[in-house]
Design a protein that fits this description.
- The complex is a heterodimer.
- Helices cover about 0% and strands about 55% of the residues of chain A.
- Chain A is mostly beta strands.
- In chain A, the strands form two sheets. In chain A, strands 2, 4, 5, 6, 9, 10 and 11 form a seven-stranded mixed beta sheet that branches. A four-stranded antiparallel beta sheet of chain A has the order 1-3-8-7, with no helix packed on it.
- The N and C termini of chain A lie far apart (about 40 Å).
- By secondary structure, chain B is an all-beta fold.
- Helix content of chain B is about 0%, strand content about 50%.
- Chain B contains no helices and eleven strands.
- In chain B, the strands form two sheets. In chain B, strands 2, 4, 5, 6, 9, 10 and 11 form a seven-stranded mixed beta sheet that branches.
- In chain B, strand 5 and strand 6 form a beta hairpin.
- The radius of gyration of chain B is 13 Å and the shape is globular.
- At the A-B interface, strand 5 and strand 10 of A face strand 4, strand 9 and strand 10 of B.
Chain lengths: ~120, ~110
């Protein structure tokens, strides 16, 4: 059974940093691209970015709203994917979902809430 | 970046009726790589359709999708109480994915 479990969310002040983790199991993690999607309270879904696999150089893509502030990385030996979030803004407040990318996003974690507030 | 516009914003129907949702892209969606998700309140989005018209595993045939290029349609026949939720389209045909803003399907 595919499982994705996010952790690391919490309350931070504007300008601070936070790193989210996602632990994957139930599939060959190294074979897949992994992505992050977020959802602000009461709002829709927003694609944040993805990281490709080793064959594709672990390259990443980001949404314009987070490019330059967020970085996605992965550790294939531990089946982990990370979202490093720097210079956080109040508008980054959202539930952050880790997803597996099979072209479309087929499996999702339960999400972790990040609140950016002073 | 491809912008997806869903309509209507809210759709009010009764159980047993047919729901028709639209997703329009600002530019061509390569290979018709368009997916649909259902999200119920407080829950994680669930994949329903991919490739515009292919049902995900376990999705009943009451759910169907069609379209190509920039115009896509998602249809739910014989609405059941558990179908009332928010539906999102996702384009995955470009390097940077994007979601529509969602259509809320509510009970009339």
């Amino acid at each position: 059974e595919v499982q994705l479990v996010e952790s690391g969310g919490g309350l931070v002040q504007p300008g601070e940093s936070l790193r989210l983790s996602c632990a994957a199991s139930g599939f060959t993690f190294s074979d897949y691209y992994m992505a992050w999607v977020r959802q602000a309270p009461g709002k829709g879904l927003e694609w944040v970015g993805r990281i490709r696999d080793k064959i594709n150089g672990y390259t990443a893509e980001y949404a314009p709203s987070v490019r330059g502030r967020f970085t996605i990385s992965r550790d294939d030996s531990q089946n982990l994917v990370y979202l490093q979030m720097n210079s956080l803004k109040t508008e980054d407040t959202a539930v952050y979902y880790c997803t597996r990318e099979s072209w479309y996003l087929d499996y999702w974690g339960q999400g972790t809430l990040v609140t950016v507030s002073s | 970046e491809i912008v997806l516009t869903q309509s209507p914003g809210t759709l009010s129907l009764s159980p047993g009726e047919t729901a028709t949702l639209s997703c329009r892209a600002s530019q061509n969606v390569n290979n018709n790589y368009l997916a649909w998700y259902q999200q119920k309140s407080g829950q994680v989005p669930r994949l329903l359709m991919f490739g515009a018209s292919r049902r995900a595993t376990g999705i009943p045939d009451r759910f169907s999708g069609s379209g190509s290029g920039t115009d896509f349609t998602f249809t739910i026949s014989r609405l059941e109480p558990e179908d009332f939720a928010v539906y999102y389209c996702l384009q995955y045909g470009s390097a940077r994915y994007s979601f529509g803003q969602g259509t809320k399907l509510e009970i009339k």
